[in-house]
Amino acid sequence: MWRRFAHLSLSISRTKLQSLDPTVLKLINTFSSDAGNDGVASSRKPFITFVLGGPGSGKGTQCEKIASIFGFAHLSAGELLREEMSSPSENGELIRNVIKEGKIVPSAITISLIKRAINSATSDKILIDGFPRSEENRIAFEKIIGVEPDLVIFFECPEEEMVKRILGRNQGRIDDNMETIRKRLKVFDYLNMPVVEHYSSKGKVHKITATGTVDEIFERVHQVFASLRPKLCLEH
């Protein structure tokens, strides 16, 4: 079921390729070459969980606890991009240039980094934190990787609570950040909710009420993963 990434650029139409900025096109070609040399053996199909939730929903904290208790590898899409950007490699420089020019890093690049992290993970139970962020991300992931996630966790949190949490992490910048935070939350709803709705229609989504203390929220998360233990042990 797993496919090699030999040609990431194939996931992008010829028309789009022709219209891409040279820096972005070079970035895609570079990652296409790298990915082709780093496939996953067909006998190893990881149990993949997407973890979704708005900014301030607490998904990162809960992922750390899930990884610790249930033996999952925790992969953060944003962190993978930041790590690659900070590296002295040519790929890192290309990503920095794309972002510096105000362009969006193509889905294929983020997915390539995720695939690389899956390859090097010591566990075949994978949490992908904060990805996919949009339907375009989702479609690209399924097309390039060749599988859907086994499970999707969605942290439901009231907007006011998320705003409060984000402001608490950015002390001294409340007035400056309030408008920006609310815009981020609106963008999240617009882009991410179609992904949640898509997987909900397939019975893959478990919604977690993300209010209360960290431990109270994890009690709800624990129930979901504890119910999956037999499946995880037998199949993975």
From TrEMBL:
It comes from Rhynchospora pubera. GO terms for molecular function: AMP kinase activity; ATP binding. The keyword ATP-binding applies. Its EC number is 2.7.4.3. Belongs to the adenylate kinase family. Gene3D superfamilies: P-loop containing nucleotide triphosphate hydrolases (3.40.50.300). It catalyses: UMP + ATP = UDP + ADP. The keyword Kinase applies. Pfam families: ADK. It is an enzyme of class 2 (transferase). It comes from the Eukaryota. One of its GO terms (biological process) is pyrimidine nucleotide biosynthetic process. This is adenylate kinase. Keywords: ATP-binding, Cytoplasm, Kinase, Nucleotide-binding, Nucleus, Pyrimidine biosynthesis, Transferase. InterPro entries: Adenylat/UMP-CMP_kin, Adenylat_kinase_CS, P-loop_NTPase, UMP_CMP_kinase.
